[in-house]
Amino acid sequence: MAIRGKESEEGNFKDLLKFRFGSGDLVLSEHLGTCRKSAKYTSHQVQNELIEICGNIVRKNIVKEVNRSEGFSLLADESADIFGKEQLSIGVRFVDALNNIREEFLRFTELVRMYGRKNHCGNNSFYRV
Questions:
Q1: What is the four-CA torsion angle of 107, 113, 115, 119, rounded to 10 degrees?
Q2: Could you tell me the pTM of the whole model?
Q3: Model confidence over 22-44: pLDDT tens digits?
Q4: What's the chain's Rg over C-alpha atoms?
Q5: How far is CA 104 from CA 7, 14, 20, 91, 94, in A?
């Protein structure tokens, strides 16, 4: 789900705040109704921080589950984004406590080319994460 819309005043984040406001969240209602515009904490920077915090919490919970399992496989796949930056997608596959096979995404990491060299197998490129 996209958090921000095309215009700075629209988007799912602000719609979720309005939903909470309309559902009777008195603390949020008072905060949004009485604070200065600069103190609402609804800017793009705050939204990005919230997304990062939530992602870290989810990732830590996944790692806890993986550590409780008897084993895991690391999944990695490299691809270029629409701007041509090469990224490494990192995930894990493991069996959880209910014996369900799970695959979970952990993160994207930008790959930085260190150097390329030719060897007997052809043109190989080496990367640093």
A1: 60
A2: 0.67
A3: 888 999 888 888 888 778 888 88
A4: 21
A5: 32, 28, 30, 5, 9
Listed by start position, the domains of the chain span 43-128
User: Residue 61 has which token pair?
Assistant: 């919970």
Q: Is residue 70 scored above 60 in pLDDT?
A: yes
Question: How many CB atoms within 10 Å of residue 13?
Answer: 19
The per-residue b/e assignment along 104-129, b for 16 or more CB within 10 angstroms, e otherwise, is bebeeeebeeeeeeeeeeeeeeeeee
Q: Which residue has the tokens 């796949």?
A: 77
More reliable by pLDDT, 65 or 45: 65
Two tokens at 29? Answer: 């209602």
- Tokens 């705050």 correspond to 46
